[in-house]
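for the writeup, i need someone to sanity check this before i put it in the appendix. the sequnce is what the collaborator sent (i think, or maybe the updated version? ugh). structure was predicted straight from it, no edits. if anything looks off just tell me and ill rerun, i have time this weekend
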Amino acid sequence: MDVMGDKATLFETGRFVQPFGTEPARDEMVDLGEAAEEETRLALAAQSGDAEAASVLGAMLLRRGDLDGAEPHLRAATAAGDRAAANNLGVLLHQRGYPEEAAGWWRIAAVAGSAAAAHALGRHHRERGDEPAAEYWLRQSAEQGHVLGAYALADLLEHRGDVGAEHWMRAAAERGHREAAYRLARALDRTAGPGEEAATDNAVAEAEQWYRQAAARGHRRAALHLGAILERRGELKEAGRWYLTSAKDGEPRAACALGFLLRDAGDAESAAVWWLRAAQEGDGNAANALGALHAERGETQTAERWYRAALDAGDDNGAYNLGLLCAEQGRTAQAEQWYRRAAYAGHREAANALAILLLQGGDTTGAEPWFSKAAEAGSVDAAFNLGILYAGRGEDEAALRWYERAAAAGHAEAALQVGIARLREGDEQEAERHLRCAAGSGSAEGAYRLAALLDARRPPEPAHELGETVQEKTECEEWYERAASQGHRRAQVRVGMLAAARGDVVEAARWYRAAAEAGSRNGAFNLGLLLAREGSEPEAAVWWTRAADAGHGRAALRLALVYARRGELAEGQRWADRAVALGPPEVAERAGRLRDALREELSA
């Protein structure tokens, strides 16, 4: 057991007793000859009745662990009124297993003004459940500037929920107590939640300061949290240094965090080394990371072993990841088993995955409650899936509620659905807001619909001649282009039309061709028009044929006209028949007249 009253000031001389096992600093050489000579001198002085020498000699022997040798000297000095000796005699008796007798001597020393003894006496009373007495003596110690007394008092007050705890925790931290600095930082971290931004920033900055103090004094968890703060701020190099310091001191969470930093930097092999170290020390997150690493390499058996290790460590992600692994391998029954295990433990994404699995198996009734459970637990995907489920049943109001919930959490496709619903209701302002969210989050359909909404508000522009100088693009065109660049075929056609309207034939042809090659019949038709206008009717006919085969009536009518002009009347009549069937009405009417004319010509 450590000596109570660590580094307690002895008498007025600054002498102290350190805990057993404390070693001298590595850069300080201890002269054993001088120490023996000093001990001999003190022993002679003590034998001649020098109480101070007896007290110092007793402290020296106590620090060495020589309880039998220390006790008579400490008793002699105590009898002569030396309060430091009374404190250290209490320490000695406590180590021998006589706590009550130790408390008696601590009381004598504390009454005489020993802050270390008051601290030890306060701890003694707290261990026995006498909190009022503990608080009294710890306060006596703390008010005299004793750092351990201040920390112990703060701990007692914090346990009781007393607001005075922070004052004494701060006092201990300011005097260099590393655990106090760490706990003060943790308390500040917890207060730095939602609220005024300036207050939150101040709390985080102060927490960082105390984490630094504790970490610099070798507190491994403080180093871990300091690394996390720095990582969030993007200072990855310094964050890595603190994670490394903490990990080397045996903190598995720091080893795991260091592994993720290394992986993100592209060093998967070094990451695996630290994850292995953390996983072997029981860190479930590291075990999951190792499992994912092996799964990416196709080493499914090793991945499964690590996922099971994560589960054994109490990490429910292990069960979820096992479910994912089994689902990828087509082991549906086992996937369902693992998803259920994680879902029953409260894993929201496992609940969502389980619901999807049940839905894919046709069990809508079984899927719905799991979607609900996941959504209520905060799964954005589950909220969106519930919206799809209700929409499929025609329960549009219920679907919209879940879409709105998912959209509020940033789900792009949910925002798109809300935007579409608001457009149907005629609420353009709300529709635009949601469509902007969807488009900004990467939804191609959202970008297209937002562009169409903005396009409908634009005043008509004057016509452009082909080849005319291209003017500045509008916002709606920029959104069309964003959707088009993501492969949205209707957006590609619209961008082509706007480019053609500006006179940019090359740009128009590029977008029409992209849409046509992706299967857009309008893109193929417009590309044909552009090519025909440029004098390339044979190539235009190729694209019109593709459009007509996909059901485009105007393309079929254009082909009928092309073949009629070439004198291929039968082929022209065939495409005219096709145009009549495809429509729309005005096209069907024109195609009908052309067909009748071709038929008369053929029968003449």
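DSSP finds 34 helices and no strands in the chain. The chain has a mean pLDDT of 89.
thx in advance!!
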